[in-house]
Amino acid sequence: MTRAVGAQPDPRRAIPGVDRIIERPWCRRLIESGGRAWITARLRSVLDDVRSGRLPVPDSDEGYAELLRREVARAETPSLQGVINATGVILHTNLGRAPLAVEARRAMAGAAGYGNVEFDLATGERGSRYDHCVTLVRELTGARDAVAVNNGAGAVALALTAFSAGKGVLVSHGELVEIGGGFRIPEVVEAAGARLVTVGTTNRTRRADYARAVAGGGVGAILKVHRSNFSMSGFTEETELAELVELGAEAGVPVIHDLGSGLLVSSAALGLPDEPVPADSVSAGVDLVAFSGDKLLGGPQAGILAGTKEAVARAKSHPLCRALRCDKVTLAGLEATLSLYRDPARALEQVPALRMIAAPVEELERRALAVREKVGDLRAGRKGGGLVAEVERGESLVGGGTFPDARLPTVILRVRAGAATDRWLASLRAHKPPVVARGRQGWILLDFRTITPGEEVIVAGALAELGAAGEAGS
Ligand SMILES: *Cc1c(COP(=O)(O)O)cnc(C)c1O
What we know:
Structural class: alpha/beta
Bound molecules: pyridoxal-5'-phosphate
Shape: globular
Helix content: 40-55%
Low-confidence stretches: 378-384
Number of helices: 19
Strand content: 15-25%
Largest sheet: 7 strands, mixed
Mean pLDDT: 92
Strand order of the largest sheet: 5-13-12-11-10-6-9
């Protein structure tokens, strides 16, 4: 290292070594709680950062103690944390889709130890993990049998693999959907070892199109895919499920319905446009219907296949089923969530995703105003002692690739942040628990449709810290 004559000595030369710091009483106390190897590694990382200039050189022993404590706290923060969703997107895929009902959380905690996953408590003999949610799914869909697997995509892949590996799968041109995250129908068909046979056109597919393709032979299944995340209008025509079932029965070809969302109450009860439910597919006579556990069903990540005894048995006996099976904690959460639907009114109140969809704006407004009172100037839009916060109307999305056209009226608390918007959003994300909000033109937007009742205090606390931290540009 070279140094110009007369320049200050490089402060980095005075950085103490690990051996010296590790003997300090404050460091010993950290080692007592964190363990020697772990704390030493954290200390090394701090000293590396100081040497390389990523951290400023502390000018005191206490400065090093502070840096190390911060590094330990950072490293001990779990990678996966619960967050407050202030984005207004109810089934936010990046935030874990459906928030679970209290009953489901309790059941999952209860199943986390030993559980009778594959054990029959009545006989004391071996049981099947696939039995747990079956009675409820049968009751709620009218299907004769069902099996739950890891997720919706897995359920579709399992159905296709079990029925059409080495054969053709008929799909309407208008249903070659990408669900998101790499789940594209043509690729799923290919991954199932089947051959994609597209029928009809993008906007119109008739029964005769399917009939012609079936007549071609070598068909393993007819797959109907619900357009859950986009809509089509204008000169369109699609073949009804019942017509496909009729055709399938004549030709001896099973019909599989990829429904997606798994809504188990009527969409009218949620004030949303018509959306098919699994019971509709079952009563139309499909062999299997596939739907997700963590979309509008509001449960843990899972995929459910419901249908005829024969079709479910065929899916269950395929080796892929074992690879896609649910763990005990998921099964417990799914069962508890499904139980809430025995009484649809109860489900609307206790399944958080449904409750959020149905929450009246007046309630959201009351909660937003309560937070504004805590953090801001009561005279809306005028700068007072606290933050400048206003309550406004907006629109939320259901999300999770469902109800693409639906906009739910909502209430947004907007906080003026000016040039500090990005920094403040980052501070909210660094809060414990993190608050995930959106920014727009110098304002931070908090949508109360997805903030769970009871979380207002935490949101207000996180905002108050921003206020205390200082200035908002304008
Ligand atoms: C969401 C969806 C899937 C995939 O379900 P995951 O639970 O996300 O795996 C498959 N098909 C349709 C139509 C969907 O909407």
